[in-house]
Amino acid sequence: MEESNLSPVTATKRRHSAAFKRKILELIEQPGASVAGVALEHGVNANLVFKWKRAKLTFGAEPTKVHPELIEILRTQMETQGDEPAHRFSQGDRVKIKEGPLAGLQAVYQMADGECRAMVLIEILGKLSKLTLEPANLREV
């Protein structure tokens, strides 16, 4: 059996002080600052800065932990939402449905439902009915 000339690798994990983390988090909140740029300037990984940011979220004065899966779901929703925000209309705006079985019907915009969808009222058989649609499926009348 042949002997290895390789020396064992020892893993080292850097520990950052709470003050350092606070400083980084304050810097990324500055207008025009990017997480990647601040991280690079201070010799830390941008993913680590995002981890610190997630851990910092608060309700009132009390810090709270937010599950990483929730952060990823929200990030994905923001990325897929693109340039079609549900809030491009104001409550009471008259809109027209562009596609689908209700295409061409006019509706009254009510609000964004918090899930990247828009809630509208349409009149069917003389009664107002709530309907949720993708904002991209609406246009102003």
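[next item in queue]
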Amino acid sequence: MAGSEFFLQGNISSEILLPLQQEILTAHDEWHVNVPFTLYISSQGGGVEEGLSMVSLIHAVRRSGRIFNTHIAGGAYSMGAIISQAGSHRSIDSYGFLMLHEQSMGVENDSLKKGDFKHHAAQLEATEKVLVDIVASRSGMDAETVRGRFFEGPDVYIGAVVALELGLVDEVLEDL
């Protein structure tokens, strides 16, 4: 059905997500709950808070009884990969990739005090726990495995077949 497909492409930011979220909510209000939605994701990642708001929206729509699938079209990196985990059914093209990595934080103030570092470190730990729990809950891996494999050390790029084996997607779509 036309209009039940949505596209998240580019950097995850309020400017990209707010219109998309409004489009999804409008469609959700206008269409019967039996009409499934699919979000196509092609994103290099972006803001954690903004991305978590998208995860929250997908969960809210799913709680209403609507099927809300996610599909990785090309690459879903960082928060794009986290958003992909929110789908009822998660698919990826055979040439697609996910990327997960240790969290980072930009700091605007050049003169930081010791207490500032502790505060930022605590913030990163809390955020990482949320992201780890999202991946663990969908993949079937325990949280410590997820943390050690994807959230410590360098960026981890995961091809489609390995993503399926790890429980990060439910289906790999083959080329025609």
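[queue empty]
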